[in-house]
Amino acid sequence: MFLKQFFEEKSSTYTYLLASTQSKEAIIIDPVLSEIENYLDIINEQGFNLLYILETHIHADHVTAASELREKTKAKSIVHKNAHISCADILITDGCVIRFGEYKIEARYTPGHTDACTIYYIEEEGIIFTGDTLLINGCGRTDFQHGSAVQLYQSIHNKIFTLPENTVVYPAHDYRGEKSSTVKKEKQENVRLGEGKTQEEFVKLMQNLNLPYPKQIDIALPLNQTCGQKKDA
Length: 233
Description:
The protein is built from six helices and 14 strands. By secondary structure, the protein is of the alpha/beta class. A six-stranded mixed β-sheet has the order 1-2-3-4-5-6, covered by helices on one side. Strands 7-8-9-10-13-14 form a six-stranded mixed β-sheet.
């Protein structure tokens, strides 16, 4: 499998391009609009056929490249049905399977950071793309977009921490320069969710984070509700 991790500095966002080296069919996860030329350069250089644009949720910290990628590659955009947007091509639910080449990626619904959060698991490769649901030594905030600390705790414990411990975790963000983790490491060492942390402790911690208002939310969220397409476009 071809797997390329991109990093957008302003929002510390990771985007992932995955492809079959045999069929050249590809998918991209959480693309950022400002980085679209970087994605297209690799797609064209490798001769990939981009089939799907997967969103882990409706982002509040950057504008998605979904609309422009659809226009330039004819790929179809995918998001969970609870995103309540009409611009996506495919609305998925828990357990849906997306195929590209010889690979299948399983969508796992993980509400908590938002009510549309979905992670993507490729069992045969032992990798999972966790969006903002589970970060390296952290997790997404739960104080806006219908977030719920109780739901987030349960989502992580039921949909991620039940996976084989050597499963590689690829998050949507990192603010310390780390690129990946493992289920085992997060189960043991995650400062918010690691070994021994109860749901009650987690909820109390999340309620007292006192995080600042997201810098780009007033721009990013409305645009992402139209898959990144400006209304006058």
